[in-house]
Amino acid sequence: MMLSKEEQKQFATLVNTVIDIPLVPEEMEQQIFEHAVAVIDRALEDTLPTLFHGLMREADKGIDKAQAKAFADRLVEATNKKFDLPYLNEEQEAQILRLVVDPLVKAMTDGKTLKNLLPQLQAASGK
Asked: Is the distance from CB of 36 to CB of 12 less than 8 angstroms?
């Protein structure tokens, strides 16, 4: 796993503020999104070499900021081929993947860490 259980839960909470599953109560949505984030985490772990796993936790190392967007796009495309979330439609699946990958890639840039970014994301989401 690239993400700890707590980080997965935090990402799921962020996703829950953005994506709504009609007719499903919030508590159930949270459980659905926690599962989805865990599935995405496993797919990302399979997609990325171990070297990248540490970059999101080390502020003094990282990928080139100028290339981060293109890297995130390639990562989304490659990872999306490795899983399917049948309880979400394709639009929701793409949205949740972006909501996880973009902050992870940002955390992999020089001077950033996931530990510093997650509180900012939570504050921005209002949760």
From this structure: yes
As given in the structure block, the two tokens for residue 109 are 């840039």
Domain-by-domain residue ranges, the chain?
Answer: 5-125
pTM recorded for the entire structure: 0.91
Count of CB atoms situated within 10 Å of the CB of 85: 17
- Closest C-alpha among 74, 121, 120, 12 to residue 3: 12
DSSP 5-49: HHHHHHHHHHHHHH---TT--HHHHHHHHHHHHHHHHHHHHHHS-
Tokens of 50: 């171990």
Task: Please write the tens of the pLDDT for every residue from 32-74.
Answer: 999 999 999 999 999 999 888 889 988 888 899 999 999 999 9
